[in-house]
Records
---
Amino acid sequence: MKIPPQEAARIAALARLQLPEDKLALFAGQFEDILGYMDQLGEVDTTGVEPMYSPAEHATVFRGDAAEKRVRRDDVLANAPETDGTFFVVPKIV
Amino acid sequence: MPDYEAVIGLEVHAQLKTASKLFCSCSTAFGSEPNENVCEVCSGMPGVLPVLNRTAVEYAVKMGLAVNCEINERSVFARKNYFYPDLPAGYQISQYESPLCGPGHLDVETSAGPRRIGITRIHMENDAGKNIHSSAENVSYVDLNRAGVPLIEIVSDPDIRTSEEAVAYLKGLRSILLYLGICDGNLEEGSFRCDANVSIRPRGQAEFGTRAELKNLNSFRNVQRAIDYEIGRQADLLDDGEAVVQETRLYDAGRNTTASMRGKEEAHDYRYFPDPDLIPIQLERAWIEKWAAELPELPRERRERMAAEYDLPAEDARILTEEKGLADYFEAAVAAYDAPKKIANWMVGEFLRRLNETHTAAEDAAMGPESLAALVALIDKGTISGKIAKDVFPDLFASGRAPEEYVKAKGLVQISDAGAIEAAVDAVIAANPAEVEAYRGGKTKLMGFFVGQVMRETRGKANPQLVNELLQGRLG
């Protein structure tokens, strides 16, 4: 599968990554390698085979609907790059 | 200029009224202190695992059953990837290729008759947090209490043709959610939200036009106005030979316009893929059957039953059953005093008007169903006139006082004692000799004048029928 450099730039933008212009061909090539490797799976005849979303085969695991406070706000906010003790503070959005 | 037809599809997000979030046990309580109901799962810390809330699945399936959807025994959660500060994980857990509920429909009543609106799908997803923007500072604040609250998204087919149909459909969905008791249905607080996809095409054309997606429609009135505005805007563009651009537009209620959210939303590319943290939901047939059996009487069935059982006009039955609380109120009032038509009249008129004015739900009204029933009974017994009942209604509604006690305390009990009324009749006749003569001379229309005078004399308390009889006796 051919991945043009612009496609690599688009994927990078979606992931909020800024790739230097001169690295686009390098990453496009790596995408091609990975996708080409996975494309081998396309050679297998999967007619009539259900898609598998997970290798786990156990039944759905549910949780009962009971509310519980397990974490203190201070602990949640302790991981924030910036906080005022109540909110997560982020660069201005609008 | 061609005649255009609008093609409208609605996406409704309904918050499910579970106690805990969709994938963690944090509380869903509205109005908590910011970030109090947040843990490592709903704040998107690395390495955590979501565990599905069973009640949320039950609620979603019940909604599917209530709107005639196919229930998929197997459905899959997918990650919808985008970056926004209120979405801590960098993706929303939603459903994509395999939603919980497949095609269904909702029948709605419009001024042009009944319409069936197709429902494409209902899927489950988690809500995002809330951003608070400061105009003074160069920062925004993020509250993740809402992040992870369970939502269902109900996607309609592009079957809707007018803003009136859109509102009827939304009210129908909301009504069902409230009957099921699975959602608050509060548009202002955002527990029931709607986005509208609107396009137009020349009438008779089969292909759809280019659509715009409208957001920020936080009341039924705004839904109607925003869609009407957008249809007009697109018609003007096409009439001028311009093209409609596919984009997201925000409705501005203050100016009643829609404006492009330019730039913010370039072509969406959410790169959905099955969430590897969650195995597919596998429903057992027996659960679906159990949930189907637990469905309560829904608005449509209740409307039809009440119309037949109480012999109500179709419109009254529709209004009274739109909200479960109102229908419960009606049936409680009828149980207290068996006069369904009169009770329906009072409810559709005075009672509902005041509920709307005071933004009160029927079940929260100070005036309980027994009081309304008692008021109607007082009129029937002739204790008070209908006119006085209307006059005292605002007080009774606001105070919740018992009508019998209230009219007695205020001295409003109707005078049905002929002796007392006779005195007033005599006084009126004595005071208006010219009118009496004219009446006897054939101006029988003056009867209304005499009745009015007697009512004034008795401060509205005389039994009107008795007044009429006595006057006719004296003047005849």
---
Amino acid sequence: MTAIEQEKFETVIGLEVHLQFHTKSKIFCACANQFGQAPNTNTCPVCLGLPGTLPVLNKTALEYAIKVGLALHCEINTFIKFDRKNYYYPDLPKGYQISQYDYPIGRNGYIDVLSEQGAKRIRIHRAHLEEDAGKLIHDSNNKLSLVDYNRTGTPLMEIVSEPDMRAPQEAYDYLNTLKLILQYLRVSDCDMEKGSLRCDANISLRPAGETKLGVKSEIKNLNSFRAVKAALEYEVTRHQRLLLAGKPVVQETRLWDEQEQVTHAMRSKEEAHDYRYFPEPDLVPFTASKNVVEDIRQSLPEAPQDKLARLKKQYELADYDANILVQDPDLSDFFEECAKGFKSYKKICNWINGPVLQEMNQKKTSLADLNLSAKNFIELIEKVEEGTVSQLVGKDIFKKMLDTGRAASEIIESEGLAQVSDHKALERFVDQVIANNAKAAQEIKDGKMQALGFLIGQTMKLTQGKANPKMLGDLIKRRLLDG
Amino acid sequence: MPYNELTAHDLSELLQKGDVTPEAVYQDLRQQILKHDNSVHAYVRVNDALSFKKDTADKNTLAIPIAVKHNICVKGEETACCSNILKGFKPPYDATVIQKLKNRGIPVLGHTNMDEFAFGSSTENSCYGPTRNPWNLDCVPGGSSGGSAAAVAAQEAIWAIGSDTGGSIRQPASFCGVVGVKPTYGRVSRYGLIAFASSLDQIGPITKDVRDAALLLNLIAGHDPRDSTSADIPVPDYPALLDKDLHGLKVGIPHEYFVEGLDPEVETAVKEAIEALKTLGVQTVDISLPHTEYCVATYYIIATAEASSNLARYDGVRHGLRCRPSQTRKNSITDMFEETRARGFGEECKRRVMLGTFSLSSGYYDAFYLRGQKVRTLIKQDFDRAFKEVDAIVMPTSPTTAFKIGEKANDPLSMYLSDIYTISANLSGIPAVSMPCGFSKSGMPIGLQICAKPFDEATMLRMAYHYEQKAGWYKHKPGLEEKR
Amino acid sequence: MITRETTQHIANLARINLSEEEQTKLTRNLEDILTYISKLERLDITAIEPTSHVLPLKNVFREDVVAASLPQQDALSTAITQQDGAFTVPQVVE
Ligand SMILES: [Mg+2]
Ligand SMILES: [Zn+2]
């Protein structure tokens, strides 16, 4: 396909994101909202949809939903109601999902997506609250599907964008921006691997200049942002080929095959959906008064883009440093906490973006799971900065702090790691090294200063790294040149 | 007199004095059931041995076994709405009302027969076969709580609970000559009542007299945090409020309820009851409820729409019946759903699920479901307006007395029309009671219906009590022949 | 108003297999009932709000507090078939 042929078409993409809230209990019952339990151990008559049971809304779930709506700049409906979405599937125990139809929590919002091409505003069509379904595990050997209802009733927010994205990369950038905004709200893990963030994509192509939408495919089974991008790229090509060959695009749901990196049409026959939405009679309506919404708006945390700007200004951080910090709200909060007690911001930043991030990536954990207190952390940085320990030893101490939970000063003391800064003691080591390395010593005397590093290294070895390297250099020079 | 022929309030006094034990009451009930339930068939299950709590705070003065409709969940006991699709379903939990009764030491005597999922007005649509009217075994007991009403009328239960979506407590109470109360929507928790139509369903008492109804309503009413539609309004002491006289009360007589189609014998009995109320100090006012003629149509849109969704959970996945098509090539999950529901649901059930699905379906929603909801507003406004003027509204419970078994089986619409006088209370949410007000020449009971303002069951029951005591119909009992 | 095709479409939505006779009978029943219901068309409802709930209740919540779930064996006590702690159904094809 030539570039000119490609330019004949405009790609139109809209995304549907489902976000699980990490409330303590489920949305309509008091079962724990947990992940990774044995099948059907996290259920009760209500979330099993047993005959006779009734839902009661979790207050926190509604508050979280309003939070998300506000963070996405949505208009918040003051009248909120729930509706039944009727369809049959074994993972849906009541035969309907409690969702929202004509009065969603929020609508007409937007987010500003930053990318290499600059900022682009993607509009949010609507954001509504609903309940998650259970999970099917297929046992092909026995021609069975196993049904686990643990996930049933997890609070879920569905965020539907307008079809405002024009390329797979834009969809990718949108998802990253959206995820960051959501992470800052602290209403969800936003973890695609665990399924707490899920995404379906709608894509269609139309001749450049055309305003009417083309026939779309809906893509499911997307397990990472990268998969979203790859699947969309695959679909762009597939649609182009069909359109150029004059063949019709069929409106259908397609599944992404991560292994083969292709999409294929769902095998099950798809009937025209008729969800027969109607108001949920088991739940009464809710009102989000101006005051309530205003209170929640006031309590919203700083948005990531605002925080980025502020960090750069307030702490004079470089773009690069600030960007890394902002990618994780925990990290940037931790930075700011440290910055209260230690004024060399660049140093804190280096330590966070260096050893701390390395440790998190290696152990695949969050900052919270590292169990690192700001107080202990800045004490360590201080010890390194004032020369009590070297940078190298400092990194070892950092690991020990994480392993044991002890303070840096404790570790330095109990393990005798403080740098030897006592002149008399250091002189003895230096003299020994000079005596053992006469050739190098002579070179320095002759003005060949390259050998200095070697002698410093030898002395460090002798002191097991506890010597202050700057002091050592001065001492060796004085011994050889002044004496 | 055998204990099973007494009322709960009489038995309660005897229990208090220690003149009777709960076991003795149970034994007499069992005797009566063994003797007559073969022919009446009020029960689908009678519990073998009941465990009576020995020392509850109220000295077991209420330890009187109760009959429960088969759609109210009792932990560990089959609760199947008399449907093949739920046969064998034993809920792992108690309905809130059952929990309340058990907490007061009241054991469940057994589950009573009903129309499948409460879809019917005759208790003929049960997978366990029909119940018969104790006053005439060839007649229906009404429905859908026909089993509960027949059990009380046949002295096979001291008291019972049923559920009322469009008259399912009041119409069988009327047909069986007992007292049936549909409380205000939200007065009694629906948690554990297997739903027919969520915005209309209420659980209520079926008893031998008004005092027992007041007593039982007191026990089951009240706010329940498990039911979002349950009202957080204090429950008055209904029995204590019965005695105050009726002077100063205003009663509305809606002329729309005395029109063609009303059996003249019923009309006469109800009009006599109104005269009796006047002698008790009640002032009557002619009123109009102009949207009465639209009640049945509105009801059949809303009730079936909600039912079509409420019954979606019977899919053969988690409980009850599962069927697979006989053809081997049909083995998808959808085939399983379709076959399970085809074989598990009875004829009336399919009809209602189909009708409800239709009125919610794309292209028909506005013309049917939405229109139904709007007319519901008009019907409710009729009552709001009327209750600005009156304290209660009096009308017949049913246009006729009990009809013959099989008489309306092939005419669903005429069956629907037998609820014509009871449906409005469900659509508007108001409380209503049915009680005996006479007998037809052929000896069948006639029911009087009294409706009141939302949450004013106290006034409604007080009026019913004074009429009952003056008229004395409660003393009449059916002469059951022992079946050989 | 109701054709056999409509009846079959509704039966598909409601997931009920209908026999030929049932299809015929239900088509007639639905037609009768809907004809009766059509009396509602006589009313002018343009300015009327729909009623979903008769009670003016609003904002009924529960606090976000956890209570015990059912033990697995109780959750599965009603199961028709089960395996490895899960309900089982004929394999679902996606
Ligand atoms: Mg959704
Ligand atoms: Zn639960």
